[in-house]
Amino acid sequence: MDQNSDLYLIIQRVNEARKTSQIWNYDFIDRYHTQNFYCFTRGDFMTCLTNSTNQQHYMVTYTPWQDGEVVCNIFYPNTDCQTVSGGVDVWLLYGESKIYVPKSTLTSFTDIDDQGEAKQAEIRAQMEAEARLIFQ
C-alpha cells in the first residue's frame, strides 16, 4: 500500500475527521439541497456534495455552528477556512466535495504534511483542466 498516494491521503484525512468528530454519535441532518447540490451534517461534520461538473455556490444558513466560529474544509485546511457569518458560503468546483469541520478540531491532521496537500492541489488543478476540456 502506497501511503503517499493521493487516494490514500484523501481517505486518511476523511477517516481522521470522522474519528475526531465521532459522527456515529450524532443524527444525520439534511442542511440544504437542490437538484445539483446536497449538504448534510452529523454533529460538527458537514458534508457538501454535487452531481454536477458545473460550479455550485450556496450559502448554507442552517448549520450546527454559531456566527463567529471558524470552519475549514478538511481537504484544504490551510486555504479554505471561513468565519461563520449567517451560514457557510460553499463553493464546489468541477464536481468536488467538501467536508467542513471546526478549525479547532483540525489538530488531528498534523500527520498529513503540506506535501500531501500540495499533491491534492495539483490533482485538483489537473481535474479542473480536464473538466474544462471535456465540457467546453
Structure summary:
By secondary structure, the chain is of the alpha+beta class. The protein is built from two helices and eight strands; from the N terminus they run αββββββββα.
Write a structural description.
- The chain has two helices and eight strands, in the order αββββββββα.
- It is α+β, with helices and mostly antiparallel strands and 136 residues long.
- The chain has a single domain, classed as Golgi alpha-mannosidase II (Immunoglobulin-like, Sandwich).
- A six-stranded antiparallel beta sheet has the order 1-2-3-8-5-6, with helices on one face.
- The mean pLDDT is 84.
Question: Descriptors for this entry?
Answer:
single chain, 136 residues, alpha+beta, Immunoglobulin-like, 6-stranded antiparallel beta sheet, two-stranded antiparallel sheet, 27% helix, 29% strand, globular
Structural class of the helices, strands and pairings? alpha+beta
Average pLDDT confidence is: 84
User: Oligomeric state of the chains?
Assistant: single chain
- Strand-residue fraction? 25-35%
Spell the H/E element sequence.
Answer: HEEEEEEEEH
Strand order of the largest sheet: 1-2-3-8-5-6
Number of strands: 8
Extract low-pLDDT stretches: none
Q: How many domain units? A: 1
**Radius of gyration (Å):** 15 Å
**How does CATH name the architecture?**
Sandwich
Straight-line N-to-C gap: 37 Å
What is the molecular shape? globular
CATH topology: Immunoglobulin-like
CATH class: Mainly Beta
Describe the largest sheet: 6 strands, antiparallel
CATH H-level superfamily title: Golgi alpha-mannosidase II
Q: Considering DSSP H and I runs of 4 or more, what fraction of the residues is helical?
A: 25-40%
Compute the number of helices: 2
